[in-house]
Task: structure prediction
Amino acid sequence: MGKIIGIDLGTTNSAMAVMEGGQPTIIANAEGGRTTPSIVAVSKTGERLVGQVAKRQAVINPDNTVFSVKRLIGRKFEDAEVQRDIKLMPYKIIKNKDAVKVAMGDKDYTPEEVSAMILSKLKADAEAFLGQPVTEAVITVPAYFSDAQRQATKDAGKIAGLEVKRIINEPTAAALAYGLEKKKDEKVVVYDLGGGTFDVSILEIGMAEGEDSVVEVLSTNGDTHLGGDDFDLVVMNHLVDEFKKAEGMDLSNDKAAVQRLKEAAEKAKIELSTTNESEVNLPFITADANGPKHFQYTLTRAKLEQLVADLVKRTVKPCEAALKDAGLKASDIDEVVLVGGMTRMPAVQAEVEKIFGKKPLQGVNPDEVVAVGAAVQGGVLAGDVKGILLLDVTPLSLGLETMGGVFTKLIERNTTIPASKSQVFSTAADSQTQVEINVLQGEREFANDNKSLGRFILDGIAPAPRGIPQIEVTFNIDANGIVNVKASDKGTGKEQHITIQNSGNLNEEEVKRMQQEAEAHAEDDKKRRELVDAKNQLDSTIYTAEKTLKDGGEKASDEDKKALEDAIAEAKTKVESEDKDELEKAANTLSEAMQKVGAAMYAANAPGGEDAPTEVEATEDEGKTDEPVEGEVVDEGDKK
Amino acid sequence: MPKKNAKDERIEELTADLQRVQADFVNYKRRAEAEKAELLDFAKTRVVRDFLAVRDNFDRELANRPADVSPEWAKSIDSIRAGFDAIMKNLGVERFDSVGQPFDPNLHEAIAMDEGDGSHEVVTDELQAGYKLGDQVLRHAMVKVGRTELSNDEKENN
Result:
């Protein structure tokens, strides 16, 4: 059964996505790009070029390179938009009955045919990516597209060999990408500032009759000639001015310099979305009689925001008009969705927040959000997206209590469920015959700070030295969030389990609170954890040292033996210390003393130490012998 | 055979869902394997591409080197550049020549057209060199393009 891919057929760039395992995935093109320039050309040799490769030759082949064909599709020759483009576009736009054609090479093409060339490339690249034929698609169009424009887009798909299962509005797709269709009776604003166009749409998510909810476009507005390219130009002109100020030379006629400045301007603009300063460093930008000139300049975010303030302001009026047309006030808006790379700019986000009084939703890449939404729609149509396939995640980690009150996580938070994980633990004391499993949920380092979901005892463990019994603990969480914990003694085969029905019973606030607490206490918890680890380490070293003394003492010299005995006595006085460094130092000193005796043992004997290497590796979390630790499980190391 | 009841339908539906997820997973795994192999190249490509900006400046230095610079000094710069190139070569990065070659948008990014007669498009000037890593174009050469008539050799080939 084939995939229905989602295609954002954009004015300047196109993107595509598909549902995989219930999750949207962006499909990279053959060149590895996540978006493809919506540019088509016919070269002098008659070769058809699409995407980045067409863009690279546009300068030398302007008559035969068609871009922004979306501005023409489904339009009449007499349309004001078309008449304007005839003046703006370097390629030829010709009358074709009522409609238009564009000239490329020796032939004229309808806008549908040109769009189909873009779609064909996307289709071929998607097939290479997915390793299967692609014959069906959902394609997005601007909300203001007329029936004729929609039909023409559908026809373009057909020419490209794609059955267009549905044409959906771009803002609707963006809302779908955020799962907003599930929120009934909400008003959503989609603010789309792309490379060359600005669109704002106001949507109403209606009550669902049956399965599909209804997304209605209440109003749209925008500016068909405002976008990221204008921002880049403003920045570039500023760089030209700055160079003129510094060196008295005008770079605007030097094509190579302009190209480098253009790239630098875009890079600086992008960088300043995350930093406050960006270094423009262009050595050998030009030369005069006195030698080469370099351009070095620091652009600050404040300066950038000042430069583009007018452009950002130009989006305000369309937003207000859209609200007015929808008969709404800013306070009626429930959600704001951002589309287009330009909306990464903090100044743009701040302006949007100012207009609508709401923080915009974050999370989906604004360059990809429309394609993702189209893929979601495609998934619904293909039956890929269903209730049972929407996988949940565990909001909090699950684990158990181990030596020293430590919380050992088995299933980390945000793990997709159903999931299961096992780990082997051991006893904390010699001859320990039972362990208590305390099942915990939370993010804190210590058992006491987390929520206990339940506990049970596994008994009948055959008496053995600590660390020897192998107790396998398995956590299993099903799709409904029901947790089953099983502990079994590998030696005797005895097992016990507990089923916790309500692990997911925490409400959203509780989960949030626990996550925040964990964050707030992260530093303290880490310090405490390190202290406990150091204590456990020392305790375990003492245990091993005593064993070494007992098992191999007679082979060592009296001197070494005495030294080890003293070292053990000394170490025991440190066990209760609250100083991590002191604990670690004591453990190291003891290890050294022990090694001397150990070496003597080996010198006297062929190697026969039962499990010395394992023990060294496993010391980290091993337990204490000098206090009752019955009922605690000790992590023996990751033996899963 | 009794006719299908709701349970059977449900089983069929769930089996189909399971198959779909299974297929997605298998495909995803296959692609993840392929991507893992490419990842090393991808990481290398990204890092090398960033460093090309430094290499470009060596070219610009050479093109703009004053006549009165001391020969020793010039020699040191040349040896730094040679060291850079040696590392690039070890990484499998190859620089390709563009000037005089027919314009090819798979290799070249045109930023200007020189006026001229002729039907043949040739690279007349290279403003930034192009580099390849194996068969893959690491960075397209930034070029100026002019028109000429076909040379006799090329006429024969065509």
